[in-house]
Design a protein that fits this description.
Helix 2 packs across helix 3 (36-45). The chain is of the alpha+beta class. A hairpin with a 5-residue loop joins strand 1 (48-54) and strand 2 (60-67). It is globular. The mean pLDDT is 85. It is 44% helix and 24% strand. The two termini are 23 Å apart. The chain has three helices and three strands, in the order αααβββ. A three-stranded antiparallel beta sheet has the order 1-2-3. 9% of the residues are buried.
Length: 78
């Protein structure tokens, strides 16, 4: 069964090209930050948050970006 809300959200993201904003902000923050704390702070300044997924050893294996400006949530691998 397809989730109607997810489908509507995916269409809105594609139609309005909302995916373009998030990678630009993330890329700029990555270039200017030396550690995770600075990265999170830089994203917050731009209206974004990041959730990292870590394995048992603490290594990051995934990220989800929440962009409050465009009201989108994107998986880091996208």
């Amino acid at each position: 069964m397809t989730n109607i809300k997810t489908t509507t959200s995916a269409r809105r993201i594609k139609k309005q090209r909302l995916k373009l904003h998030t990678p630009k902000v993330v890329s700029k923050a990555k270039r200017s930050c030396r550690n995770e704390s600075e990265f999170r702070a830089k994203l917050r300044q731009q209206g974004m948050e990041v959730l990292f997924r870590r394995n048992d050893e603490g290594r990051i294996y995934g990220a989800t970006f929440i962009d409050h400006t465009t009201r989108t949530v994107l998986n880091g691998s996208r």
